[in-house]
Records
---
Amino acid sequence: MSGLLARYERLVASGELRPDADQRRAAERLDRLQRDLQAESPGGLLSQLFGNRRTQPQGVYLWGGVGRGKSMLMDLFHETLAIDDKRRVHFHAFMQEVHARMRSWREADPGDPIPRVARDIAREVRCLAFDEMVVNNSADAMIMSRLFGALIEDEGVAVVTTSNRPPDDLYKDGLNREHFLPFIALVKERLDVFPLDGPVDYRLDRLGGIDNWHTPLGEKATAQVREAFFRLTDYKPEDAAHVPAAELDVGGKRTIHVPKSLKGVAVFSFKRLCGEARGAPDYLAIARTYHTVIVVGIPRIGPDMRNEAARFVTLIDALYEYRVKLFVTAEAPPQELYETGDGAFEFERTVSRLMEMQSAEYMALGHGEEA
């Protein structure tokens, strides 16, 4: 198996990837980490000279807008890392496991569970690779500084992660964020931070012309947004039943259940998103966290659905403000969704935004980027 850098160079030479200075620098750094980890693995050069002693390697934090190649580099790193004790895992799934391990330790012993959980994880892996580090609930934020401090500094686990946000923007405006700040300091000290902001948005290439708005409701429309989800997340259709869910924190007061949440893409039904009592804070939390939102089952909104219409307007305003990409299945095109009823005139602004959100210019904008 060739190393990461050799594989990356072949992809560029073949035209599958375009030359990108940011990607190249990140690939070189990941390749160096890869060689360090392999050298000290059983049978490696350092292991032969000094025994199986763990060092404290400097990890890597890749961040940037969607479609800039972060997950691609992560995949290459993990695939070509020639050690057995490695793991690539979605960040939400990992944190759910951590909470389960903590509960088990508390039941067995009333002592502090975090060092024990870190020790258990370190016995299993030498390198943890996370795709999409995003912190959106206070339960995770409260333990991350101590957990990762123990993993990296005490146990010598190498951490490689991707994120849509720079370290300083993680858990931004979150409840009791002051408890999370030591984690940010740890990331900046113990991981090399690489921004990826190259000129190519591979996400748009992967979409291959799939439209944003699919009507009428039915199997064909559902198949189209499902395909968009798989292309955006690189998830395999045969694993559809195992796409993780998430609980999104809203100002520490409540959470929103996200039925499908992966790599910055969220899937909701219209009924759950706009048919239940929700307000601007809920929709802003979604817009800040996800670069792409898929809403399925949007009906024609009749005069008896003015609450649903008002919530839908608020949702679209929030998504538009943060330049979130929107894919939907709907009973009708935007201009025919809500033709009569209270607020139908004001709904015309929402129709205008929905039309703009389908444009190539809007789709090319980065998450949170000004138009």
Note: The chain is about 45% helix and 15% strand.
---
Amino acid sequence: MDKTNDAEWLKGDRHQIVRHDNDEFPDLLRQIPDPPLLLYVHGDANLLQLPALAIVGSRNPTAGGERNAFEFARHLATLGFTIVSGLAQGIDTAAQRGALAAGGNTIAFLDHGIDRVYPASNKALAHEIAARGALISEFPLGMHPGKELFPQRNRLISGISLGTLVVEAAQRSGSLITARLAAEQGREVFALPGSIHNPLARGCHQLIRQGAKLVETADDIVSELAPLVGHLLQNSMQSTATEKSARAPDGEYVELRKFIGHDPVSADELALQSGLTIDQVSSMLLILELHGEIEALSGGRYSLLS
């Protein structure tokens, strides 16, 4: 550790070093077999003390996987969970953006020095997390990222979290290493199932065969973790209802939604079934898509999202 460089870095806004023997050091990380000696924190170090859930997965997910990561993170963040991930492209990015979109907390553990940003495409996201959440690294300032550092970083992602949710992962994936570390650390492991034709679902299916909890909704996670963080969830039903009310259009939208299912349907068919004009239907479909309730498919057709 270069004390001169550290002292200079500590002059930055919201820069802090949390040492293993400090009261601010999180108890959950003290419990893992190889806790870090110190953590560089850019952001709010208090987040280290809050109940957290890790969301990890493929760097090259499907659109559906990315959407699932975003929505699970958004919903769980509204209930008070700090969403933890690794700032990688794909599922990590979607999860951390979901938490931020909810006005919730998120932590990104880095596999390099905290004075760097990798990947460069996530520079803006990193700045937003530093301003509204926390970037954290145990590596010295100036250290470059490297694949050999992934497992070391991943043990912190799983270690600080009450559970780890895997969203889309190939059978040989770094996300499975995080899941294995979580299990070894005595944390809960959750996995989203997917199509048998999707190679990115195979890692999740493998985890489920090995004992991970199959997850279809965020409530599946909440029910498992509720005994550990019951105080967070006392008002979850009310919060969820309020959030849905704020997000969901009403009035004629309620009538239109009756005719939208999981089978693709065109705007013309919806106009005929609902009695609305095609202009009304087209406008309403756009709003419903923006609210994440429906999905636009090829051929001008639409279907309901779970």
Note: The chain is about 40% helix and 15% strand.
---
Amino acid sequence: MSSIFFMSVLVPLSILLPISTGLYKFNRLPVTARVILYYLFVSAVVSAVAVFMARVLHTNNQPVLHIYTAVELVIFNWFYLKLLQPSGNNKKIFIVLPVVFVLFCFINVFLQGIHHSSSYTRSIEAIICILFALNYFARMASNDLDKKNLNQPEFYFNTGIFLYFSGSFMFFVFSNFINLGLSRQQFNILSVIYASLVLCMYCIFTAGFILCKK
């Protein structure tokens, strides 16, 4: 299997696996699972638009990805708001955070340029989502959440998010410079690793949907 086929065809199409599973079990999905399904829909649409712009229109698709970064964080913030069910000042954080982040995404358009990779916002988004995921794991460990077994779909959704953002954090940080000083083969290896993280997240999400019960 060529790396181009893996990154350009197999991984993008693999999103259909969790989407189809989520749709099949839609009536059994809790709110948290439905939020993940909405995220997958948004991701699929953005991926299709980005590919169309790059491959058919031969135009820069970075403007779409700037918008996607803001929307992605808002959706995951919504997911963890429902999952962690914070109260008091903690709940205010989940209300203020997406507003501040969207504002920063707008400012970043002028910092990095609309036609360049949004590495600043992607990196900060990764840190935020990693902290969300660690918060969930910490509450599991302290027994604040009764979800200490592998039969809970939320555990899989959280694990998929944590794995993806933890592994791709450095890729986001150096996305504007990662090809400097690297051969094409080395760059392809890094791209395959990133695509593999996306594929793993989709597979873990699928497992989470399968475990959803009415």
Note: The chain has eight helices and no strands.
---
Amino acid sequence: MVRSLEMRGWMQLISAKPFAKVVAAVKSIFGFFIKVFIYRIPEVQPGMKLWGGRFSKNTDSAVDDFNSSIGFDCRLYRQDIEGSIAHVRMLGKCGIIPVDEAELIERTLKEILADIENGKVQFEVDAEDIHMNIEKILIERIGEPGKKLHTGRSRNDQVALDIRLYLRDEIENIRKMLIDLERMLLRLSEDNLDTIMPGYTHLQRAQPITAAHHFMAYFHMFLRDLDRLADCKKRMNKMPLGSGALAGTTYPLDRKSVADELGFDDITANSLDAVSDRDFVIELASCLSIIMMHLSRFSEELILWSSHEFGFVEMDDAYSTGSSIMPQKKNPDVAELVRGKTGRVYGSLVTLLTVMKALPLAYNKDMQEDKEAIFDAVDTVKMCLPVFAKMIGTMKINRDKMYEAASGGFTNATDLADYLVKKGVPFRSAHEITGKMVAYCINNKKSLEQMTIEEFMAFSDRVGPDVYEEISLQKCVDGRRLPGGPARETVRKTIEEGYKIIDSMSR
């Protein structure tokens, strides 16, 4: 249905790339101002707007194109109709309009919904937005009774309702995708409990860990993302309908019954706030930005790891691309695109904050700009999560390369210092002694494990033959048994707990 829309001018931007959108929008604005303020050429359109009683002439076509939001808010059609059905049922039950007319409106709205989903409805730019388009179609089909649907509500509280309903649904869609990614991370971690690799700080080899421990770090990041989305939904799930344009209405509406029917936890407490703020949209954009930040950090590591210099992983052919000129190349383009699209979601967040930063109460037309930004952020995250999960689920992990990297770079130096501490050397002295040992090994091109007992004892007479076991990579990893550490048994327990958490979220 949406794809069949034939809009004028910048309304066709719904499928355009971001740069093309900017160019076309600037051209549209420039053309609009020339037309209105320089040439002043009126273009009278047949038929007045549903709100046109106060006006003496029709809206200029340039204003229609500039003002209309149907090119992007058409995706709210289902939520708009669901909200209208709940509203008209309440109007009938409260005796505000005749019950038989309420039932007729409800029936017709359901028919319109079916026609939209079957591609039988063509939305109009002149009707401005999804709300007026549906109401116009309703009136065309049933006449005077259709004009009673809007009793006791404004487009201001109507759009506030629709966007909450829509984003509430999208939060659940994104949470399901995150849960799928979490399951993939748990499986990867299970498979790599014994895969020793270097952990890094400052992108320098630091201490040995396991790949399972590394993957579980991202598991917990995304787990917090899931919690943030749940919190965002909780604050979003207040029903604004009945707030009117800004000051409610004199009709005896039963707001609570509409809220219950639509699955809201409560009704909004202040009509001005309900129609004029979009903090729930901004909060969701913030949650999505953090999700993308986590995906981008992971992508950055995978890009590095898939390089010849690291060689830790190899992306599956189905999730890689080649070069148009260099036949040997295998590029991690999925990870690179995820990293790149992160900035796009950040941009949506900044757009929303900027739109809202100076708006006086209550509703202002600027707020129409919230939808394209949050829609694009939602679409981008939904595009990235499934392909990212499949990419990491199919990549090959080079365990030998990881172990080799952990063996170099003196990742067991901290354990050697700890060994000296256990032998009675103060930590600061042990740190200094170990540092000198590392410098000696660098000068003599050997690792700590390759030093002889005599070489060790030249630095400290506390060193004994047991040092070799203490600084083995396996002992370095498994010796860190504290909760949250990389020891195999510790990580295994966190994986088991992770499955329980994710299973509870899936129910």
Note: The first helix runs from residue 18 to 39.
